[in-house]
Here is the input.
Amino acid sequence: MLTSQAFPENAARAIADDRLRAALGKVREGFGGARRQAAVDRLPEFEALRDAARDIKDHAIAHLDLYLERFERRVEESGGTVHWCETPGEARDLVLRLCREVDARMVTKGKTMIAEEIGLNPFLESHGIVPVETDLGEYIIQLADEPPSHIIAPAIHKTEDQVADLFHEHHRRYGRTRRLDDPGELVDEARQVLRRKYIEADVGITGANFLIAETGSTVIVTNEGNGDLTQTLPRRHIVLATPEKIVPTLEDAATLLRVLARSATGQEFSAYTTFSTGPRRPDDLDGPESFHVVILDNGRSRLVGGPFQDMLRCIKCGACLFHCPVYASVGGHAYGSVYQGPMGAVLTPHLVGLPAARHLPSASSLCGRCEAVCPVRIPIPRMLRRLRERSHSECLSPLPERWAVAAWAWIARRPRVYRLWARFLAGVLRTAAGRSGRLRRLPLSRGWTAGRDVPAPQGETFMDLWRRAGRDAA
Ligand code: SF4
Here is the structure.
C-alpha cells in the first residue's frame, strides 16, 4: 500500500524505533558501503566500466522499440511468448490467466520488484493461488506480512531475533517447534521448508535484471540459487520485466553485470547468474514446458526524451540506498513505496504521480553520494531538485512554505536587499539567542528545531567577510 504521502510521520516513527535503528546499523556498518569500495579498489578500470555501462543503457533507451521488437522475435523463435502490458491491472490479470491455463494452485517467486509494484501476491491469493517467496529476504517479509524495505535486501530492517521469532511461529506447521537463534540454522531451516515448495509449485515467477535483444534471453542474478529452482522446476516460467531492462547483446549484459554486483554487494560477481532462453527443448535435462515474458510499462515510456530519461538507466543495484544518510536513518518503509531511497524518490513520483509522493524528493540532503556511487551515473540530485521545483510550481507544497520560498527568491535576486536583510537577520538572531548563543525555536522552522538548537550567527556576515578579504588583498 502506498503511504508516501505520510513520509514525515513515517520517518518520525522510524527514528523513534530502537529495533529498526539497530537493524539499520547494518547499512552504516558497510553492508554495501565498505564492501563496494573494496571491490572497486580491486578493479582499476571500474570508472571506465561505469562509463561503458551508462553508454550501453543510453543507447538501448534511445532505440527501445528496435531492441524490444528484436527481443520479442528471438523469444518467439525459441518457443516462448512476450506479452505487453500498459498498467499494473493488465499485468495482474494476464499473470492470473497464465497461471489458470496450467491450473496453478501454487506459484514460487524469485525476487521481482515488478510483482511488488503490481501487488501480485494479494491478487493471486484472492483468486485461490498461493504465492511463495523463495528469496530468503522476501520469504522473511512474506511471513511478517510486510513490504520490502530495500530493493536488494528486502528484510534489512529485521533483526536476527525477529527472524528467529517469525520462523518459530510459522514453521510449527512443518513440525519444527524448536526456536533457533543461530543464523546458519535459520537459513538451513528456510532452505528445507522451501525445497518442497519448489517441487510442488505449478508456476515459477521471476524478475529479470536484463533482457537481451540478441538472443531473446532473460537474466536474473541471485546469491541463493532460488532463481534457478524457481524457473526450472515448475511447468511454466513467467518473467516479469519492464521495457528499460533491454540491452542489445550478451556482451553488453556482461559489462553491466560487472558493475552490478560490485555496486550492489561488493562482490566480483553474484553467486548465480542465470540466463533463460525459451522453454525446455527435447534434449534439455530440465526446464519449464512454457516460457512467458510479461513486459509492463506503467508510465516508464513517458520518461523517454524528457528530463527524467536518465532514471531509466537504473539497474536496481541498491548502492544509492546503502550510501544515503536519510535512508540509513529512517529505513525503507518510511518512503511508503515499493522503491525506496534516492532512486525511489525519483521513480515513485513518476509511477504514482507527484501529488501522492511530493515529500520524497525532499527526503534528501542533496549530499550527492547517490550519484557518486551510481554505476550508471544517474544524476539523482539534479532530478530531485527538478521534482522539488515542479512540486513548488504545481502548488503541491503548503502555502507558508511557498510564500517563504517566494520571499527568499525575491531577496536572493537583489544583492543589496540581500546584504541588508542578512545583516539585519543576523543581528536579530544574535539578540534573541542572548548569552547562550543558541536558539531553541525559530518561526517557520519548528520541524528543524524540534530535534536540535540553532546556533546564532557569529561575527560578520559572509558577504561582509568576503568584501573585507577583497579589500585586504588589494
Ligand atoms: S539509481 Fe543508480 S545506484 Fe541507485 S539503484 Fe539505480 S543504478 Fe543503483
